[in-house]
Amino acid sequence: MPDDPLIHDQTAGIERLLEIMRRLRDPATGCPWDIEQDFASIAPYTIEEAYEVADAIDRGAWDEMEGELGDLLLQTVYHTQMGEEAGHFDFQSVVRAISDKMVARHPHVFGEESRDKSAEQQTADWEAIKAAERAGKAQQGTLDGVAVGLPALLRAHKLQKRAARVGFDWPDASHVLDKITEEAAELTEAQEQMEADQVEEEFGDLLFVMANLARHLGIEPEAALRRANAKFTRRFQGVEAKLAEQGKSPQDSDLAEMDALWDAVKRDEWSAES
After folding, report:
1. Model confidence, pTM
2. NTP pyrophosphohydrolase MazG-like domain: from which residue to which, for each copy (predicted)?
3. How many domains is the chain partitioned into structurally?
4. Among 105, 137, 163, where does a domain finish?
């Protein structure tokens, strides 16, 4: 086909990828699966690819980063191709928009403002610029613009960060810890006396305050939970390995034995680190 030289030109860069996507979406000659997709059906893959990049970073898997970043870039190309087909935007307009935004938000680099300021002042300036942008979009509320589709824990963190900017915040982490104790007590009471939806509500309140504690401690809650997930996975796999040495599986064991093996796995980790 006439476009094949570009498709197979490994030096063609982003233009090659854009053409590949255009061909995949071609109604007459493209891939049936790709043709059927829309923004909503592709969105979960976009989120998944972003998390896979984060996972590779968490694991220090630098040999995987090239591929994971490519997968994430493909998501942008996919959405821009669909945007072009619908007449909303295209790849070049998306690039132009983000480039304009970065220039506007960094007047100390691309404009006449001085770079002689602290990181904290630069952050404050950044937030002021973003607030002005939201005002230009008729987003007047403090919490406007925090995406509803974010993972709930991340959105809780962002909502609380926005509220804190206008002074709606506890003065230090000790007050948040007191609130956690209060919410835990309310959850215990709900579990004993209330219906399932009320228990869920109280559990959500506790999670929300935990996200706030993360912010006060300077911790990214999603990253902290990913790390905890990875530790649990690693240690439970260690339990399974110790059971396998005995010719057993978790189904052949009981809680007391697996708990003892869990402690043994933890001791092995501590010994290896010391």
Report:
1. 0.64
2. 37-110, 176-235
3. 2
4. 105
